[in-house]
Amino acid sequence: MNFPTIADCVGNTPLVRLQRLPGATSNTLLVKLEGNNPAGSVKDRPALSMIERAERRGDIQPGDRLIEATSGNTGIALAMAAAIKGYQMTLIMPDNSSAERKAAMTAYGAELILVSKQAGMEGARDLALQMQADGHGKVLDQFGNGDNPQAHYHGTGPEIWQQTAGSITHFISSMGTTGTIMGVSRYLKEQNPAVQIVGLQPMEGAAIPGIRRWPEEYLPSIFEASRVDRVIDMGQDEAEQTMRRLAREEGIFCGVSSGGAVAAMLRLSREVENAVMVAIICDRGDRYLSTGVYDQR
What sequence ranges are listed for the domain Tryptophan synthase beta chain-like PALP (predicted)? Predict the structure, then answer.
């Protein structure tokens, strides 16, 4: 028998219908459970894609040291992928990330370097590039690497199209590196240009793990504004409240950015009728427990 490896288990995640949160509506609200990936998030897809495609090009070989700046999920996914493929992994992240995220990265054998909360992701990205320039490894660069959206163009997008039998009218995704929304948008628009692509960014002052309101000079180079039909600004309280409601009313245990995506979908649902909406649940809630975000009622 030809048994799968752990790498074969990335992707093909469930798409499920929300039962209580939507209320009385003619719309169908669906969420894609990316926390079902082996390392627990949607980032498993681009992590494996960036390493495997770099291998095929001959850019990296097993045993090399890879470097990446991350706020959490990509780092965990890359640590897993590096363990699968036999690479050394150095991850650079802000020190205010949750304890569970840090512990998961080191559990997979990655070296972890912390920068201050003030330096943030911008500082982490700068340090990664400096380390590469100093000869300490190769930066995969999820923010500018086309292999990131390719993972979603070839995986997430086709899965959603097939799982909805082509009936999807709206796709909603939080935006961090923007790889998910770029790849899925490209695929879905090729199937049906009328599908509405909705991106989510935090309001000024909101701190929602995994999504960013990037300064212009740090905007991911893979991002193409023309591929997003609408951008919704999301407040932290609304995202967190919806996250907690998903766990308590739907049995879907996820992180804050996923709560924000569903909150945006609920807003959109009040504007239209007979729509089929899909939002990305990008990770699981267990990696946020130490932050206390689930302690509130």
Answer: 7-283
Are residues 160 and 260 both part of a single domain?
A: yes
For residue 167, list its beta bridge partners. none
Give the whole-angstrom CA distance, residue 150 versus residue 179: 8
**Domain ranges, residue 94:** 43-139
Residue 269 lies in a domain: yes
Is 169 assigned a ligand-binding role in the annotation?
no
Q: Show which residues are catalytic.
A: 43, 257
96 is in an annotated binding site: no
* CATH number of 25's domain: 3.40.50.1100
Q: Give me the number of domains the chain comprises.
A: 2
List, for residues 221-272, the tens digit of each pLDDT value.
999 999 999 999 999 999 999 999 999 999 999 999 999 999 999 999 999 9
Same domain, 126 and 214: no
Looking at the fold, whether 277 and 197 belong to one and the same domain comes out as yes
Query: Known binder of ligand: residue 179?
Result: yes
pTM flag (> 0.90): yes
What integer is the mean pLDDT of 175-185? 96
